[in-house]
Amino acid sequence: MDRTAQLIARPAEYSVAYDPAAPPGSLHLRATAVLEGNWTGTSTVPSHRLYPHQWSWDSAFIAIGLRHVSPLRAQTELATLLDAQWGDGRIPHIVFNPSVPLDAYFPSPDFWRSSTAGRAAGAPRTVQTSGIVQPPVHALAAWLVHRADPGLSRARGFLARVYPRLAAWHRYLLHRRDLGGGGLVSVVHPWEQGMDNAPSWDAPLARVAPAPARSFRRADLAHGAPEDRPTDLDYGRYVRLATDYRDAGYADGGGEFAVEDPAFNALLIASEHALAHIAHELGATATARHARAERLTAALVDRLYDPAEGMFFCRDVRDMEGDGLIRERGVSGLVPLLLPGLPREVVAALVSTLRGPHFGVGTATRLVPSYDLLGEAFDPHRYWRGPAWFNTAWLLERGLRLHGRPAEAQALREAALDTALTSDFAEYVDPYTGEACGATGFSWTAALTLDLLHGTTTSGTGIKGGDLG
User: Fold this and answer.
1) pLDDT digits (tens, 9 = 90+) for 64-108
2) Is 196 known to be catalytic?
3) Catalytic annotation, pick one of 252, 427, 451, 467
4) Annotated catalytic residue: which of 58, 88, 149, 196?
5) Contact call for residues 229 and 221 (beta carbons, < 8 A)
6) This model's pTM is above 0.85
7) H or E segment at 423?
8) pLDDT tens column, 289-337
9) Is 408 a catalytic residue?
10) How many Å apart are CA 91 and CA 81, to the nearest integer?
């Protein structure tokens, strides 16, 4: 019986494959051990202590790394998440593990009340979730997982099972979340974009009256240093937005907060290209999806790119006084570099900004800071207000390789691998020193380390026409 047949015959065999050629204590083995330790049997938690449930975009990045050591488990990671999809197509940002105590994480299931408050939107009744979403990396992840072992994927019907769900997810975003009317998707909560307390949110959040401090308890402060986490004021505003969204039945369009974010939309475009390749693999036409991705790319450049600054910015669609652009330089404004359809002059400007004084990659910083080094709100340790994260490094490494910048890509790859090792796979790090911040043994750091280890060439990273272009 060949390997694929064995895996199909024994679907419970999810152990990751340790590389026998890897020396003891190697980065490969250590990264694999992190993923093994955070595996729950059906999905992977980001961190048992700080994030004890399944997170949406975490699972997508985790699957991208798992494909190198267990394609079966990578498929299961995505399938478990998609099993919690709502009837309206949204993929919730958290899928709660019922065995975890309610006080282990806030907001907990009893806050979101998904099965009751989300009933009109088609929330599942058999599993508890949050009601907001996260960046749509999932179709890209599914395509990369398929390519890791096409024989296993085809034998298990993996793409045929996930394609309708991913298509519904994209329909939800494109039809329900075009709140600015310009073709791009808006996020309705900072947690949806994934870069929770980035300075880009400060201005639109200032309109939001915070929930009273006595109305919630922050579980994150029990496991993370307060000076590294969002402030109580910011958290109160997050809770207020989530409460209002819940109390409105998770209906879109009526909230105080609506922002078009460049990274969220760039990841949607990348995944739209991936959906086109999945459709082609399944024997369907892909032309319309590629065309949609190209239209979205044009809208992204038209609405969010500032040529004078050489990068993309968020747009506050509730801003009735100015042009809506939030001119805070965050790493989100560089992430569109991973798109194949960007004009050459935009690519050149983004690379120049990445290497320039505001981000200092290749000169002042070890990894890409999450916020402008020269910005007034810069803090090298406070969550998304300055520290470097491994998922954004991975995205930019892909973009640099895609656009013919192998030297810059290789330097960023080597820095990410070295920092992952020395920080014990930290959640995020000081961009100057690489000092660990947040949780250690963080799953997407370990997973993307594996992907970078297996991607020393352009072909190895999966960046070629069959991925995004």
Assistant:
1) 999 999 999 999 999 999 999 999 999 999 999 999 999 888 899
2) yes
3) 427
4) 196
5) yes
6) yes
7) none
8) 999 999 999 999 999 999 999 999 999 999 978 789 999 999 999 999 9
9) no
10) 8
